[in-house]
Specification:
Layout (H helix, E strand, L loop, with lengths): L1 E8 L5 E3 L2 H11 L2 E7 L4 E6 H13 L5 H12 L2 E4 L5 E3 L2 H7 L4 E8 L2 E5 H14 L9 H4 L4
Antiparallel strand pairs: 1-7, 2-6, 3-4, 3-5, 4-8, 7-8
Length: 152
């Protein structure tokens, strides 16, 4: 499982160095093979080890093309899925199309999200994080049952 927050920089070619604390697991569990795609819920990217992506791809295949939201998720996630490989320096190349979508230029953040990473433009992440923090406590009613199970 991947967790934690890291600030990273992209080089002039659009390569991002994956934080070293994750590299051993990515090489050991996926031989450095990764898949990146856009996150259709937020203006960020998702980065999956190949075995985790294959699980997601199978779930996408099971979605109906006759349900508009399912079809759009498939189009976006599959359509922008890009295979990549950690190089010998632990970097991945983020294609220009994905960098443009997530508005990632020189500064980014990586968030471990269990089976994948989210990659955000640093400023966009800070703005979104502050917005979400301001919303805490504004919701009416009890949290979802799944969230209640997280209580200590």
């Amino acid at each position: 499982m991947f967790r934690g927050f890291s600030s990273v920089s992209l080089d002039s070619k659009g390569r991002l160095a994956v934080p070293s604390r994750y590299r051993e697991r990515l090489v050991g569990g996926a031989d450095g093979a990764l898949v990146q795609t856009l996150n259709p819920l937020d203006r960020s990217l998702w980065l999956y080890p190949l075995p985790e992506w294959e699980i997601i791809e199978a779930k996408l295949a099971d979605l109906s093309d006759f349900d508009t939201q399912s079809r759009r998720a498939k189009q976006m996630m599959r359509g922008y899925a890009t295979d990549c490989q950690l190089d010998t320096h632990g970097r991945i190349l983020i294609p220009a199309e994905l960098r443009d979508y997530a508005q990632i230029d020189k500064q980014a953040v990586i968030l471990g999200q269990g089976n994948k990473f989210e990659i955000w433009n640093r400023t966009s992440w800070q703005t979104q994080r502050e917005h979400w923090l301001q919303q805490l406590g504004d919701e009416q009613g009890a949290p979802a049952a799944a969230l209640q199970s997280l209580s200590l």
